[in-house]
Amino acid sequence: MQGDIVSGVLLPLILAFIMFSLGLGLTPQDFRRILTQPRALLVGMVCHFVLLPLACYFLLKLTGTAGVFAVGFMILAACPTGSTSNLLTYLARGDVALALSFTAVASVLTIFTLPLVVTWSLTHFLGASRAVNVPVGLMMGQVALVLGLPVALGMWARRQRPAWALRFEPRATRIATVLFVLIVLLAVVKNWALLVANFNTLAPFALVLNLSMLALGFAMAWAARLPYRQSVTLGIETAVQNAALALVIASSVLKEDAMAIPGAVYGVLMYAGGLVFALLMRRLGRVSAPEVAHAA
After folding, report:
1. Which domain holds residue 122?
2. φ and ψ at 81, to 5 degrees?
């Protein structure tokens, strides 16, 4: 009963608050702004919604990872970028406005893309019978409820009470960070034996996936001749995932706690990889004309 309360009530509520705190920092202009940067948007979408799931899938095949853990990693790869990417972008001296805009747009698009990836992953790694038990339409509604609605409410609160929203948003972000740590701890404690037994396999996989996507996102943006600051931002946006959503999908929607372990492991390690990347890009940016595209 206690596990049902955690998975069915507490985790979705915590994720809803995390997304509400993101909404407090957004305005409709953030959605419009990204349309003025179509090349950055296109590169970011390709990296996040195409290359990340593909890279995750091929790494799973390469390492022989299968079963519920493979599905767990695919769920993670299908999630939108996490709100922490905005902080890492700031630390890296990247384009924070682009980070905010991309996070908002990715969160909306994920409502439609995540159920498709999850259903395919269940079929591919666990057999068709598992996918049949998860109606795509129902999952879309659940993702919209814990992802889209709280963001919309946060934006509405900012519009109605802008002074309060601007004061509360930094505090809400800190609270959201603490709540995310709580989500991870709950997942770890609930599945401690399984985590210990598989940590030596899951942790290296998560770290390789994170570091490779940080590098690939940056390289793709650089190859597309985007400015340095935007390239840094898209590197972070490609690799920093909403691990809280991955835990909710695994535990609350699919009712399979083991699938939450990859999200929990990645959710911790992505901070380490993202912080190293941000500090490195910040140092390199001081000597590489960060405001200017690398090619004329």
Report:
1. 2-282
2. -65, 150
In a domain, 102, yes or no: yes
Residue 116 lies in a domain: yes
pLDDT digits (tens, 9 = 90+) for 39-52: 888 999 999 999 99
Q: What is the CATH number of the domain that holds 82?
A: 1.20.1530.20
The model's pTM is 0.83
Residue pair 172/24 in contact by the 8 Å Cβ criterion: yes
List, in order, residues 6 or more apart from 86 with CB less than 8 Å away.
25, 96, 99, 100, 103
User: What is the DSSP secondary structure assignment for residue 77, as one 8-state letter?
Assistant: H
Dist. CA 245–CA 251, nearest whole Å: 10
Residue 96 and residue 89: Cα distance in Å, rounded? 6
> How does pLDDT run across 245-266, given as a tens digit for each residue?
888 888 778 888 888 889 888 9
